[in-house]
Amino acid sequence: MKINLLIIPVITYLLVACAGTNESTSTSTTSVEADTTTEKISGYPDFELYIASLETTVENTDSAFAKYEILKENFSQDEKDSAFFLIRQFYHKFEISEEEMGDYSEKTQKEIEKKYGKYGFEVWWEEGYAFPMPDLKYIRKKMKQDISEPLTDYIDLLIDVDGQITGDAALAISWDELAKQILTCEDFIVDHQGNILYEKYYQHALSLYAERLNFLKWGLDNTPVVNMWSDTEVKQLDSEVEKAYQKVINDKKHKTSQIIQEHLDFLVSIQFENVWDHAEYVEADDIEELLEIK
Fold first, then answer.
1. Residue 164: pLDDT band by 50, 70, 90 thresholds?
2. Which of 92, 179, 48, 161 is nearest to 153 (CA)?
3. Is the dihedral of CA 253, 259, 260, 265 positive or negative?
4. Cα-Cα-Cα-Cα dihedral of 113, 115, 119, 124, to 10°?
5. pTM beyond 0.90
6. What does the alpha-carbon distance between residue 213 and residue 158 come to, in Å, rounded to a whole number?
7. What is the percent of the chain where pLDDT is above 90?
8. I want to staple 222 with a disulfide (CB 3.0 to 4.6 A). Which of 56, 75, 80, 170 is the partner?
9. More confident residue, 13 or 165
10. Under a CB-based contact definition with an 8 Å cutoff, are residues 178 and 171 in contact?
11. H-helix or E-strand containing 280?
């Protein structure tokens, strides 16, 4: 929804921006008089401007939710759903500086996790660096009564599958967890294909499925599906990959079962040799045909 700048004085924007700071509540006489004689924005555009005005201090995440509670009664359902994404985007702006990391000690790491966790962040660690990420469970709890059922289902999907899965050209989760995520994506796709209410989330689910299926079929540079370090002359699947494959194959209610069975048959036919030379990666546009749902 765009704001008609012709009817909104500049002073309104300044008042909105000031609302998110920790500055003194005192204002000049001129500002107070302007506030009482100017029509305020009281809908979603006001919320957009307010979020844009916030500095990235953890306390301002609380300010974002407080402002949402004040204004939400004037939001349509689509705007309430959009507010979730706006707040999540604000969370993504945060960074943890080297100064904050201090001595990189275990004590400092726990202090960082406590500080950010209090305000709805998960802290991801990689090679000594900390990355604050939005805790979707926290945000969902804050907005649970307002967001639509399709968005709630989509958030549930993201909580289950959209965490960090790779790092340093390797899987950051187990092969078993990767297999679970693929089946979770398949369930979402099958359950909601053709439903216009889920249209805006459906394509992302296809992308999540495709990415994870590629990893399960072909592996990554530092986590190949074939045991590259075996002393045996004949190559074979990594033992954990084999367990994940069999778990998926035995789950006959999912179409992914047949996809992995056919892939395993192919790997056997080439005796697990030069697997990456044969790799064919699927894309989101391929998934509906693979799952035979269109």
1. confident
2. 161
3. positive
4. -20
5. no
6. 16
7. 70
8. 170
9. 165
10. yes
11. none
> For the chain, where are the alpha helices, taking DSSP H only?
10-19, 29-37, 44-53, 59-71, 77-91, 98-101, 106-117, 136-143, 149-161, 175-192, 199-218, 239-249, 256-269, 287-290
Residue 19 has pLDDT above 70, yes or no: no
Q: What tokens appear for 13 in the block?
A: 């924007």
Quick one: tokens of 209? Answer: 């499925």
Distance in angstroms between the alpha carbons of the first and the last residue of the chain: 34
Picking from 5, 1, 11, 111, the residue whose alpha carbon sits closest to that of residue 58 is 111
Read off the pLDDT of residues 226-269 as tens digits, 9 standing for 90 and up. 987 766 667 899 999 999 999 999 999 999 999 999 999 999 99
Give the three-state DSSP class for 93.
Answer: coil
- If we measure between CA atoms, which residue out of 73, 117, 67 comes closest to residue 96? 117
What is the token pair recorded at 91? 């969370």
- Cα(263)–Cα(260) distance, rounded to whole angstroms? 5
Nearest to 213 by CA among 158, 239, 243, 175: 175
Residue 220 phi, psi dihedral angles, 5° rounding: -130, 170
